[in-house]
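Researcher: I'd like a candidate sequence for this fold, 268 residues long. If you have to choose between options at a position, lean toward the conservative one.
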């Protein structure tokens, strides 16, 4: 007859207990790290919101328009705050790091003016108070020419490292949209016979002269504000000497991160 061996559960050895205990300990440690990370992130998000609300309260008290939240500036601000927290140092530009206008451009921001506040302190209230007591930082918060802001806060060993990146933002418009803005302004000034043309676009790319039919007047200009026409062009329109216009936009590029539009208006 075959020998039947009764089944018996293995008795845990001391090594088995050690392994099980270690697995439980690691799981608890991971849980604690995750909980701390979630708490830290919540603290950071709360601090960013608190600083945003505080600066707009200061502006409202002075009769200034509120700044809108710029996601690209916020991304640049968080990256810089993270670098400062990692190095435990407060600086507008760390070794190997580009200047603020380049950092903002790389993050996707478009602007004509940019400014930055930085600080490290235990909480957002202390940070805001310190900024408002500093003339330069206060000036950035209350600058009437600025209209956008992004805020980044990162928890470091010395407290909350905070960055406010302010800007006078420029709309992200393609060439056709730029032309439509100028055409709308020309229509307001009585030049209803206005259209965008390929000849005007070619003229925009030229330093001098024109492409196609000879116009009576050529106005080349670069601007960040398409809500207004150049003063000399408005003067020409007031003369009522012209019956139609052609508009062309071309790549204006950027200089050290600053954005502008490049256009031409031909009058006939």
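Model: Candidate sequence:
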């Amino acid at each position: 007859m075959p020998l039947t061996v009764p089944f018996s559960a293995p008795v845990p050895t001391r090594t088995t207990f050690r392994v099980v205990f270690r697995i439980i300990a690691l799981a608890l440690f991971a849980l604690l790290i995750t909980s701390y990370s979630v708490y830290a992130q919540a603290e950071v998000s709360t601090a960013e919101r608190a600083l945003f609300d505080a600066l707009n309260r200061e502006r409202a008290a002075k009769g200034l328009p509120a700044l809108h939240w710029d996601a690209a500036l916020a991304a640049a601000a968080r990256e810089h705050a993270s670098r400062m927290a990692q190095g435990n140092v407060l600086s507008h530009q760390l070794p190997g790091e580009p200047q603020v206008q380049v950092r903002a451009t790389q993050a996707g921001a478009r602007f004509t003016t940019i400014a930055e506040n930085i600080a490290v302190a235990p909480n957002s209230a202390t940070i805001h108070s310190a900024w408002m007591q500093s003339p330069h930082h206060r000036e950035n918060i209350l600058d009437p020419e600025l209209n956008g802001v992004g805020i980044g806060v990162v928890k470091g060993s010395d407290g909350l490292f905070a960055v406010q990146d302010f800007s006078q933002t420029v709309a992200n418009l393609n060439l056709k949209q730029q032309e439509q803005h100028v055409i709308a302004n020309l229509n307001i000034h009585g030049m209803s016979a206005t259209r965008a043309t390929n000849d005007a676009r070619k003229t925009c790319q030229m330093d001098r002269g024109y492409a196609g039919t000879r116009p009576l007047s050529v106005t080349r200009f670069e601007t960040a504000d398409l809500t207004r026409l150049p003063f000399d062009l408005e003067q020409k329109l007031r003369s009522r000497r012209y019956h139609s216009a052609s508009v062309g936009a071309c790549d204006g590029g950027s200089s050290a991160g600053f954005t502008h539009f490049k256009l031409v208006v031909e009058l006939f």
